[in-house]
Specification:
This protein has twelve helices and 25 strands. By secondary structure, the protein is of the alpha+beta class. It folds into two domains: 249 residues, no CATH class; 150 residues, ph1033 like fold (Roll).
């Protein structure tokens, strides 16, 4: 067993070195000397204890620079909180046989863990799995599946449950932070991979690895590494987009008591509503004549430019779903409107005059169309604009600004029941 383990290790070592074009490491002219040491009786060799990094280097291809680290028996510390921002398992300590870690060269390994740009792929050597594909049985359904699960429970109690190896791969992938996959290496005849979504990783699976005195058959694993490399070089990969979204969503902690239980729509224009991402415009009306024009034409106009009362356009403004109106010295308002999904349009001064707008002062305006009052979405509520974060910046000013729907709902002061 020791001979097979060493053969497999060096086979994987050479495979990673070749695939990622890392120069061979040698000491005193002897390859692998930095990795092995004699046992106490001097009859065999063992991988140096405590030396988890077997191979590390850079890989440049198709104008992308990556860092590569190949480790064996690397322990991922348990109980690692996400805010710790370093490698580890969020449950129990885990130690895969082999781990391949890849991240952009521009970052250190620690930085890549912090910003979710690293991916770990784990491998475990399992010589006791006889036939992985028959053991997993991925195509069972209905009563057949229920029977198989019942038999699995019986086998597990008997100590003959082999599917536990695949479940351990699930543990590696799901518990070790920033893992892209986990795979069994076993002496069989079938290679099988399961994709979590659409791409080669994240995933699970098994590859046949059959050591012999002279070589190891690893064609399936070799082809898999080629696919992983091609995936890593893809600048539009869904996994990478998901990693970036994960970083931005979880980079700030959210306490259990930081909740929003206010009434609000679950979907807007068939898109899921997250209140901290929905933009709300806070607009100013000059007088009753201006307010009457807004309500009659179902339009609200922001003057462009840098003067007082103009709107500095941003993506948040353009994506706004709601409008809150308030007048001079009006610090509490119940004038909340749903905007149409068409987005704003540009009107000239003449365009507004044709619609009877009272005394337009600017030349160009950003105009939003009001769809309806928002009472159906939030009930009859009043908003205290002083509670909005940006109110202080624009206090006693006609200049418009924006807030998130979360801020708006948290500034609610009273709900009027009909």
């Amino acid at each position: 067993m020791l001979h097979r383990s060493l053969t497999l290790f060096f086979t994987l070592y050479d495979l990673v070195r070749e695939k990622f074009e890392i120069d061979s490491v040698s000491f005193d002219g002897k390859a692998y000397k930095h990795l092995i040491e004699p046992t106490n009786d001097g009859l065999n060799v063992m991988l140096k204890s405590g030396k988890h990094t077997a191979l590390e280097g850079t890989f440049t291809k198709r104008n992308r620079d990556l860092r590569i680290k190949f480790s064996y028996n690397r322990t991922f510390k348990g109980g690692v909180d996400y805010q710790d921002k370093h490698s580890g398992s969020w449950t129990a300590p885990l130690r895969p046989d082999y781990t391949l870690s890849i991240w952009p060269k521009i970052f250190s390994g620690k930085e890549a863990e912090e910003n979710e740009s690293i991916v770990h792929i784990h491998f475990d050597a399992k010589y006791k799995v006889d036939n992985f594909y028959q053991t997993v049985q991925p195509d069972l359904e209905g009563a057949e599946l229920e029977h198989a699960l019942d038999q699995t429970e019986i086998d597990e109690r008997r100590g003959t449950y082999k599917n536990v190896d695949l479940l351990k791969m699930h543990a590696y992938k799901d518990a070790i932070r920033r893992s892209g996959g986990a795979y069994i290496l076993y002496p069989g005849a079938t290679d099988e991979t399961f994709r979590g979504f659409h791409e080669i990783i994240p995933g699970l699976g098994a590859f046949s690895v059959n050591p012999s005195p002279d070589t190891v058959d690893i064609k399936g694993l070799s082809d898999f590494i080629d696919l992983v490399i091609d995936h890593l070089l893809d600048r539009t990969s869904q996994r990478e987009k998901l990693s970036d979204e994960t970083y931005h969503i979880f980079k700030e902690p959210k306490e259990d008591d930081n909740v929003l239980h206010e009434r609000m729509p679950e979907y807007i224009d068939k898109e899921k509503v997250f209140a901290d991402e929905v933009a709300v415009l806070i607009g100013f009306y000059k007088n009753e004549e201006h307010l009457e024009w807004i309500l009659k034409n179902h339009l609200y106009n922001f003057r462009t430019g840098t003067d007082k009362g103009s709107l500095s356009l941003s993506g948040m403004h353009l994506r706004a779903k709601y409008l809150i109106l308030h007048g001079k010295d009006e610090l509490e308002t119940d004038r909340i409107f749903k905007l149409t999904s068409k987005g704003p349009r540009i009107f000239s001064r003449n365009d507004l005059l044709k619609k009877g707008y009272p005394e337009p002062q600017g030349e160009l305006y950003v105009v939003f169309q009001l769809e309806r009052e928002a009472s159906d979405d939030f009930g009859k509520i009043r908003i205290d604009v002083r509670r909005l974060t940006r109110f202080e910046t624009y206090r006693n000013s006609a200049r418009p600004f924006s807030a998130t729907l979360s801020e708006v709902l948290q500034s609610r002061i009273v709900e009027l029941h009909q």
